[in-house]
Design a protein that fits this description.
There is one protein chain. By secondary structure, this protein is mainly alpha-helical. The chain has three helices and no strands. The longest helix is centred in the N-terminal third of the chain and has 45 residues.
């Protein structure tokens, strides 16, 4: 009986973990894409200083910002410059 309870609990906890990991992955893809779109287009239009190592030059490089921001308080090496990026 105990082994059945443990196996059921294990399957339930695994499915919950999978759901949480999928939601985190979806949030990272969405936030990296949105930050890239808002920073790349709006920086060029507004004339802000959005170049250098803190610039969001591609969606894959924006993943670093998304991972650091969604899992911690941020690393500080990539910072949004536009109002849309800061929201």
């Amino acid at each position: 009986l105990l082994s059945i309870i443990v196996s059921v609990f294990w399957k339930v906890s695994q499915s919950g973990l999978v759901v949480v990991l999928m939601l985190m992955f979806f949030a990272m893809v969405l936030s990296a894409s949105l930050i890239y779109l808002s920073e790349s287009e709006l920086c060029e239009e507004s004339g802000l200083h959005c170049t250098g190592p803190s610039a969001f030059v591609s969606i894959p490089s924006s993943f670093w910002w998304a991972v650091a921001t969604l899992t911690t308080v941020g690393y500080g090496d990539m910072v949004p410059h536009t109002l849309a990026g800061k929201l």
